[in-house]
Known about the structure:
Elements: H1 12-32, E1 38-40, E2 49-51, H2 52-67, H3 72-88, H4 92-103, H5 107-113, H6 116-142, H7 149-168, H8 174-191
Antiparallel strand pairs: 1-2
Amino acid sequence: MQDDGLDEKMPQDLADALTAWSLAANCVLYERDPGPALLNVGSADEPRYLPRTQAWRDSYARFLLERLDADHARTAAAHHAAKERLAHTQTVGFLRSIYRANREDGLLAALRAVSPASMRGIRLSHQIAVELCARAGQIITEAGADSDDVSRRRLLAATRHGNTLTALGAVPGVAEDSTDRLVEELDGLDDDPRHL
Length: 196
């Protein structure tokens, strides 16, 4: 399993939901960047255009899938915890905690932090976290990786490769190194006597 660097005392489902929320917060930033309404998620030779929001959320769901090791149970638990966190954003206690966390920066900062616009942004990030968990779970299920470890490991290897190309593919040598690693991982699965 991957070390997320989070407090070991934190329950895994909550730590994974926080990972989803962190990815969702970044996703929102990219969705709001200026640019075309449609993004090419294919290649130059075989373009495939998706609406900007859908393209970014699908990409971030795949980043989450990798962070959670394509583990269906972990993804489902994170989805449940993310839904609970979203529900918590509607409570007075949550509003109070946001206010208190920002109070040391002054009254104006604390009031800005709990403004309707700020709270909408916070809730949006939590809604997207729920969506990312659901989408990652759907990808795992569609790949048959929810009940077969070899399929899970194949999905994880392919997702890791795709994510590397998405994030760093323009860096010289990265695509080739990632492809070599993917081939090595898949060959290892094919040659593993436990899976013959």
